[in-house]
Amino acid sequence: MPGRLEGKVAVITGGASGIGEATTRRFVQEGAQVVVADLQHDAGVALAAELGDAVRFIPTDVTVEEEVAAAVDHAVAEFGQLDVMFNNAGIVGVVGPIADTPSDGWDHTVAVLLRGVFLGTKHAARVMVPQGSGVIIATSSTAGILGGLGPHCYTACKHAVIGLTKSVASELAPVGIRVNAISPSGTVTPLTTALRDDPTDIEAATERIAATSAMGKATMPEDIADAALYLASDEARFVTGHTLVVDAGQTTAVGRGDFHRRPTAVLHEAGRRT
């Protein structure tokens, strides 16, 4: 049977590691050809060599417009079209109390997390609008849904990514282009493991993240890759302007009350029950 992305061409920013790498592998499994646009030269070259003719690597700094434009143009030159743009590249960025946050750190974080998504969306639209089709996906975060789940600038940018997604979706829907976001909870990637653990100790990071999950399991890059696959595929042909939250209920079931474990009763004023 043909894959769910058979004949499709995708650009994945930050595609050489973490969520991006898992998505590159998943898309190729489903028949897509992929351009990996990433700053990590060695990792990008190695991934392309491993996956073969379906993958190309192009060094890309998502804060530089000319490099993002070049990644899009590379997909068209190598594979003849662009069907999916996954604006996934990210950093944690500047951390700390708001009163102590350096402006240059703030600006760099915004450049990667928000400007990078804007540039990828802009140049994908440049190609997709004339062809009358395409899918644009951005990686947001549960920090884009609720406050207190990430650093201040990261949180602000991830909220902004969702706003940009909704706004661009409203513009591009009439010309056949779908625009969506994915909001993962903490996912076991080099980015998150480096925050509190030895970046090479995936097992420790997995245990730590699983301990905070309502389902008792850690979110893995493959979980987010599957979400991206759905949004990229024709199965989501009527889905646009949407943020797909992949968080084991973190943002919708934050309470850990035990009411559902108690004997059935109706509680009235002053604790009186019947």
Q: How would you describe this structure to a colleague?
A:
The chain has 274 residues and is of the alpha/beta class. It contains eight helices and seven strands, in the order E-H-E-H-E-H-E-H-E-H-E-H-H-H-E. The protein has helices at 18-29, 41-51, 65-79, 103-131, 152-172, 190-196, 202-211, 221-232, and strands at 9-13, 33-38, 55-59, 84-87, 134-139, 177-184, 243-246. Strands 3-2-1-4-5-6-7 form a seven-stranded parallel β-sheet, with helices on both faces. It starts with 8 loop residues before the first strand and ends in a 28-residue tail after the last strand. The relative contact order is 0.13.
